[in-house]
Each structure stands twice: as structure tokens, then as C-alpha cells.
Design brief:
By secondary structure, this protein is α+β, with helices and mostly antiparallel strands. Helix content is 31%, strand content 22%. The two termini are 23 Å apart. 42% of the residues are buried.
């Protein structure tokens, strides 16, 4: 195995624990730590299985509002996390621990990571080793901050760029000897469209070098802001929270020619009113498409001459933003119109799949003892 854990790609999916004399059993997990949603994966599914073992958790921490009465919050908790925090948001101050994929609130992040660890090892009977997906170009300061927040939650950690993990997570090791199988790790370009960042990664069978990576702070959150502004400009009397705007986007997002037919119900002076937001949704999502296209061209220009034509035929979109309707077709059209030869853009999955978490767990199972970082 090479010095880099991500270069070791395991060929099977063994149990994620091992027994050592006189020591706690070790548990290996993969973590897709997202700005809005996170996925922790304690176990790999069998090859070909449709169901995966990912635990999805909204990346949010809730603190009680001042003066909250006893009995209002579950267990009179001083802090709630994930779905439980969202279910009680009326009585909480909600905090997102991450912003643009990096820690924005250290105490909230520390508490959230501890909460995730308790999800998979509630009695703390094991040593937990976690590979964490991070934005493609996270700097040393961002990594150090995440390392400090992981103290007490995990016994060992590794940081790997998210788009590389997505490629590894998509890889079907059972089909590597199949001549018709296109290995996503061999020569591809992954675009991971998240909430805080959109990450680009050239994947060519080895751990990516800095020049193979690009990350831009334009992703789902920016689409929400643009959509919110566009709706307010069209309907000055409408004032709804960004969480409601996000739900509108998730229900009606598309790119391409302007469409109508997206009618949503909003409160105006406490009364229900339906408004048409199809044009505004298209405006916001098309700005995301334009940002991705410009950045994609920058990444393509860095590919080696001997790999670029093959890579263009294996461009893979993943992450929540990949579910924007028509985004693969429109991105491919833009590439063709700009003169690229026979590009092929596809979606990793039409369903929500924990590819980053799967890739992270594969790396965790392959890493040597001396490669783990001790928080």
C-alpha cells in the first residue's frame, strides 16, 4: 500500500470491526460531512445491493431560546441535533456548524460530531476511526479546525476530498474484470454539487494532486439566496424564511429554457396565497449551471493531453445539486456548443445515494495504522 490511504482501494467489504487482545474493538466509519446534511456510514452493503447503511442527519445544532419552560423540549435538553432540532425549531436557536463545507462554529461542530459518533457507538465500547470527506481544496487551517472538533468523538481521522470519495463510492469492485464496465476511478471528472461548495476532481486511479482539484463557493445555498431575491422582487408582499425557499427549489429546480407551472403556497398577512415562481427558479438554477460550466472548463484545461478525450466521455455529477432537472443534459450541450468533442455528462444516481460515505469507508478499511491522524 502506498503512503496515501486513498490510493489503496480494497477489493472486498469485510466487517468494520476487528478484535485485538486487551483492547477495544476497532470500528471504521465513513462520513460525508455536509453543510446542510451529513451521512455517516458504519457498514458497507453487499455488492449489488440496492439498500445502503447510511445514516442521514441534518447538519444542525439547536440551543434553547432564553426562558424556555420546563417540559417544552424533549428531556429538557440543553442542546438538540439533526432531525430532533428541526422538529423543535420553534423553541430553539438553530446553528449550522459548517459554512461552505468548513467549520463556522467550533462548539456546535464538536457537539455535532460527538452526536454522530453516538449514533454508531452509543455505549463507547469501540475505538472509532473515521474518514471524513472535505471540500476539494480545503486548506490546512480548515483541516486543523476539523481535527480539533473531532477530539473526543473519534480515535483516528483522515481527510479525503469529497469528489474523489464519490468516485470510489460509485466503483463496483465486483465488475472490474468486466470489459464492458467503465471504472469511474480510472479516468473521469467528478463534479460534486453540494450546499456550500461545488467541488471538481480529475480522478485517474491515484489520489488527486492539487492541480486536479477545484472548489468554488457557489452551490445550493447561493441558489437559495438568488431565488429568494428574485421572488421578493416579483412579489414584494411575500416574506418567507430561507428554509421555505429551499423547499421550493428542491421541488421545482431545473435548468434550460424558462418554464412556468411552479405554483407554491405562501402566507401573506397570515392568509394563504399561491404564486408562480417557475421563472425565478430557472433564473437561480441557470446561474449555478453557468458557474459550473466556467469552472469545468478550467479543470478540463489542466488534464493531460493523453487523458483529456477519454475523461470528457466520463463526466459525473454527484451531490444534491446533481438532481436539478436537466442539469446533465444542459451541461453537456454547453460543452458541445463550446467545441468540446463528444462529451458525456451523466448523473451518479437519480436517487439519494451515500457515495461519499461509501468511498470514505472503503478508504478507512484500507488505511494503515500509521496513516491515521489522532485528534
Amino acid at each position: 500500500m502506498s503512503s496515501d490511504p486513498a490510493e489503496a482501494i480494497p477489493e472486498n467489504s469485510e466487517e468494520s470491526t476487528s478484535e485485538e487482545d486487551g483492547k477495544k474493538r476497532k470500528m471504521y466509519i465513513g462520513l460525508d460531512l455536509g453543510t446542510l446534511n451529513s451521512c455517516i456510514l458504519p457498514k458497507l452493503s453487499k455488492p449489488g445491493a440496492d439498500e445502503h447503511h447510511g445514516i442521514w442527519v441534518p447538519t444542525v445544532v439547536g440551543y434553547p431560546e432564553d426562558g424556555i419552560l420546563a417540559g417544552i423540549l424533549p428531556g429538557n435538553s440543553s442542546m438538540l441535533h439533526g432531525d430532533e432540532a428541526l422538529a423543535n425549531e420553534l423553541h430553539l436557536r438553530l446553528v449550522n456548524p459548517l459554512n461552505d463545507g468548513v467549520i463556522a462554529d467550533h462548539e456546535a461542530a464538536k457537539s455535532f460530531l460527538q452526536y454522530l459518533r453516538n449514533k454508531v457507538d452509543p455505549e463507547h465500547k469501540r475505538e472509532v476511526y473515521c474518514v471524513i470527506g472535505i471540500p476539494a481544496v480545503a486548506d490546512a487551517e480548515a483541516k486543523e479546525s476539523l481535527k480539533n472538533a473531532s477530539k473526543g468523538a473519534f480515535d483516528g481521522i483522515l481527510f479525503i476530498p469529497e469528489p474523489f470519495l464519490a468516485a470510489l463510492g460509485m466503483r463496483d469492485e465486483e465488475r472490474l474484470t468486466d470489459p464492458t464496465y467503465s471504472d469511474p476511478v480510472a479516468n473521469s471528472l467528478f463534479v460534486d454539487i453540494g450546499a456550500g461548495t461545488t467541488d471538481f476532481c480529475i480522478v485517474q486511479g491515484y489520489f488527486p494532486k492539487p492541480e486536479d482539484l477545484l472548489s468554488i463557493p457557489f452551490a445550493g445555498n447561493e441558489v437559495d439566496v438568488i431565488l429568494d431575491k428574485a421572488i421578493r422582487e416579483e412579489y414584494a408582499e411575500v416574506d418567507v424564511p430561507i428554509s421555505m425557499i429551499r423547499k421550493f427549489k428542491e421541488s421545482y429546480s431545473y435548468v434550460g429554457e424558462s418554464e412556468s407551472g411552479a405554483r407554491v403556497k405562501v402566507p401573506v398577512d397570515g392568509k394563504p396565497r399561491k404564486i408562480e415562481i417557475g421563472k425565478q427558479v430557472g433564473l437561480a438554477c441557470n446561474q449555478l449551471l453557468g458557474e459550473i460550466f466556467d469552472s469545468l472548463k478550467e479543470v478540463i484545461s489542466k488534464a493531460s493531453p493523453q487523458s483529456v478525450f477519454g475523461m470528457l466521455q466520463n463526466i459525473v455529477l454527484t451531490g444534491g445539486g446533481s438532481r436539478v432537472r436537466n442539469i446533465d443534459q444542459e451541461l453537456q450541450r454547453l460543452l458541445v456548443d463550446d467545441g468540446y468533442e463528444e462529451p458525456d455528462v451523466r448523473i451518479s444516481s437519480r436517487e439519494v445515494m451515500p457515495f461519499v460515505g461509501i468511498g470514505a469507508l472503503k478508504v478507512a478499511k484500507a488505511a494503515r495504522e500509521d496513516q491515521w491522524i489522532r485528534p
